Amino acid sequence: MSEITAKSSYTSADIELLEGLAGVRKRPAMYIGSTNLNGVHHLVWEIIDNAVDEALNGYGETIRITIHKDGSLSVEDEGRGIPVDIHQQTHMPAVQLIFTTLHSGGKFSNKAYQSSAGLHGVGSAVTNALSEYCDVTVFKSGSIYHIRFENGGKLVTPLEVLGNTKKRGTLVRFKPDSRIFSTTDFKFDIISSHIQESAFLLKGVKFLLTDERSGEKVEFCYKDGIKEYISSLEHDKNIIGDIISFEGKEDSISIDIAMQWAAQDYGENIYSYANNVRTRDGGTHEQGFRAGLTKAINDYAEENGLIKGKNKLEGGDIREGLTAIISLKIPEEKLEYEGQTKQKLGTPEALPIITNFIYNNLSYYLAEHKEFAVTVIKKCLDAQNTRIAARKVRDEMRSRKTIKQDIVLSDKLTPAASKDYDKNELFIVEGDSAGGTAKKSRDRIHQAILPLRGKPLNTFGLPIDKVLKNEECATLINTIGAGVKETFNADNSHYGKVIIMTDADTDGAHIQTLLITFFYNFMKPLILKGKLFVAMPPLYRIYKEVNHKQVYEYAWDDEGLDEAKKRIGAGCKVNRYKGLGEMNDDQLRESTMDPKTRQLLKVTIEDSLLAEQRLITLMGNDPQTRRQWIEENINFNEVDSFIEEVK
Question: What does the pLDDT read at residue 638?
């Protein structure tokens, strides 16, 4: 099959019009998922993706992202420049068409782009529609072109020529509309993590991020690409051998794979990409990788007498402790996704291509690195033995019938009366004192209380058999009643909401993080189904007597405290809660537990890579890094690494 190459010319003839822009401002969540912090950053990704696509096709070596003091953000690339000539079908400049019309772009065929992250024009138009203003400057053919939109995409400055230039590329600057979004505050660390990920996938392309608000700057450029990506993920682990990497091209699909095992890691971390877009739900390329990996390891183990007959290793045994990056560049005519969100690759050809590619390359590598192969297969056999032992422990837990064991569980748990599990809530409470107050405060029909004895086990990097033997973890597993690890099914949970309720202090934040780590590692579907929450107890109660009646408000931070003082007026008093146990039961009920008046934070995983990196930082073996991150990021009334507000 002949190789398809993106042509160097890029004009209005390459822009295809599918349909007009309509309804974006009315229903923004349909296009960007939400109107909270995630939605704001989605606008950024759409513009960055366009710059990345130019670099992906060989045009430009530097991408500059700047967060400006006025709350806007700009992205500048060194690509060919968005077309500015008149589009024959619409009789308007192509750049105007791209920023005002959905599904207009140069990426619906392979004429202008061999491969791309998205459909150029879809994201640009959506970003424009949801911005206070969007300013576009194009450096092309020796001239500087400029066009400006305001108030959701209305043209205020038609395309004009500002002068001459030797530069080439596009500069887009936009400011999210505060009437659309609950917050328009760009987060430096979120953007930094995103562009670092892109830099790993684009060898040699430089990404520069500047925050004019704080003066903070970072630069990312990786000559070894995803091999350096693996190194960044494995920095705090006892690794086995060198990073294994394979590159190649099969049937016009470019393949780049890097992988490494950690000796004492029991998780599986596979990150896959298609045309630089993370496929969070996997797809045919991940299926092919797993199949080829399993066959290569088992074949080598059998041929060298390391396993026999029916003792074949399961895929999970082999992938325990494995971190792998799979990056494919797929021509547009072959690129398929399942669903509308590009979360799962559906390209059928990718499965057999990747299966054969990884099998052939890894088989050869194992044959050439015998010591490494034996070490890895020994780890896989250890994982197999642990899996079998854990199954026995789970079977024993299911068959527990003794009175003593039943009392241990019932002593801790104060159950809800209702069997309508979807409406029931489990409060995991810090300490017996707070647990006693929570029991008095609860709705006995739908709310259950489970107090913890001391700090929970740090389950980061622990094998399942050790977790099952821990009394606190075993009690959580039995109480929720939906299984654990690969047997966990969120639909079988005895509770529609599992709520972590701790004091708003350092110890409370640590307990929150330990519990979230447990759920992330062993009950992740509970998070993905939106059933895990963190309670938000107030820090202050502001009150005073008015006409022989007490008037009061709760406040969750110092700003809220000042506002409450103004509303209640002079002479008010303030209670500062140091812990849940200091509240009266009626105060805990109305401020923290009553669904009508409480505030909850939903635990979410918007970015599994960022979550994994922060877990390594917070739960890993480097206390200095952990302390630095906590000091810079933790607000002890929330765990912002994993949670978003439920309104």
Answer: 40
Indicate where the chain has its CATH 3.30.565.10 domain(s): 12-220
Write down the pLDDT at residue 521: 84
Q: Under a CB-based contact definition with an 8 Å cutoff, are residues 323 and 259 in contact?
A: yes
User: Using CA of residue 298, residue 301, residue 305, residue 307, what is the dihedral sign?
Assistant: negative
What is the residue whose two structure tokens read 């992205």?
75
pLDDT score at 456:
86
Task: Estimate to the nearest angstrom the gap between the alpha carbon of 463 and the chain centroid.
Answer: 24
For residue 522, give the H/E element and its range: helix 506-522
Contact yes or no for 21/94 (Cβ under 8 A): no
- Regions in the chain scoring below 70 on pLDDT: 1-10, 12-22, 103-122, 235-236, 339-342, 393-411, 606-647
- Decide: 86 and 150 in contact? Cβ < 8 Å: no
CATH architecture of 400-537+599-646: 3-Layer(aba) Sandwich (3.40)
Domain with CATH 3.30.230.10 in the chain: 226-392
Give the CATH number of domain 12-220; options: 3.90.1300.10, 3.30.565.10, 2.60.40.1120, 3.40.190.10: 3.30.565.10
Q: Looking at the chain, which residues constitute the CATH 3.40.50.670 domain(s)?
A: 400-537+599-646
Q: State residue 383's pLDDT score.
A: 87
Distance CA 146, CA 95 (A): 10
C-alpha angle 233-234-238 in degrees, rounded to nearest 5: 165
**Between 2.60.40.1120, 3.30.230.10, 3.40.1190.20, 3.40.1350.10, what CATH number should domain 226-392 receive?**
3.30.230.10
Q: Left if phi > 0, otherwise alpha if psi is -120 to 50, otherwise beta: which for 516?
A: alpha
- 35: amino acid identity, one letter: T
CB 96 within 8 A of CB 15: no
| Residue-wise pLDDT tens digits, 291-309 | 999 999 999 999 999 987 7
Taken in order 149, 155, 159, 160, is the CA torsion positive or negative?
Answer: negative
Q: Is 326 helix (H, G, I), strand (E, B) or coil?
A: strand
pLDDT computed for residue 114 by the predictor? 55
